Amino acid sequence: MNVADTATGGSGHYPYVYMEEDGTARELHAAERAYLETRFEGGDGAQPYVKWRYRSRTPVARSRAGYLERSGLPRKLSVKPAPANDPFPPMTREQWREQLLREGHTIVDNPDGSFTLSLPRPRD
């Protein structure tokens, strides 16, 4: 399953935008489009989070940020241009671990080189 295909629909715009934490919207960088067009198997944790509606928040971090179908935008909300650089460049294993720790996860190293993490505690 992939979230999007390369079609832009009748409007000439890509069918998804990215919602920033502050509630603003922007066009997608080419790397983000490629990510949305990637095929994932059902239940794959790497698949993109797509908001159901403009006011939706992520289940764990309660963030407003995420991909949204353009049709879900409030009518008067303008969409900023796509960023020049990939806003989510690939991370090294160590960068990934550091981010997970900053987000409040607990990481346990496994003998096989993998690691197990726990979800952060919900914010009050």
Structure notes:
- The structure is a single chain.
- The chain is α+β, with helices and mostly antiparallel strands.
- The chain is 14% helix and 16% strand.
- It has two helices and six strands.
- It has a four-stranded mixed β-sheet, with no helix packed on it.
- Strand 1 and strand 2 form a beta hairpin.
- The longest helix is centred in the last third of the chain and has 10 residues, at 93-102.
- The protein is globular and about 50 Å long.
- The mean pLDDT is 86.
List the helices and strands and how they pair.
Blueprint: E1 16-19, E2 25-26, H1 30-36, E3 66-69, E4 79-80, H2 93-102, E5 106-109, E6 115-118
Parallel strand pairs: 2-4
Antiparallel strand pairs: 1-2, 1-3, 5-6
Number of helical segments? 2
User: What profile does the largest beta sheet have?
Assistant: 4 strands, mixed
Number of strands: 6
Order of helices and strands: EEHEEHEE
The strand order across the widest sheet is 3-1-2-4
Shape: globular
User: Rg, please?
Assistant: 16 Å
Class from secondary-structure proportions: alpha+beta
What percent of residues adopt helix (DSSP H or I)?
A: 10-25%
Mean pLDDT across the residues is 86
Report the uncertain regions.
Answer: none
Estimate what percentage of residues fall within beta strands: 15-25%
**Terminus-to-terminus distance:** 35 Å
Task: Pick out its properties.
124 residues; 14% helix; 6 strands; two-stranded antiparallel sheet; 4-stranded mixed β-sheet; alpha+beta
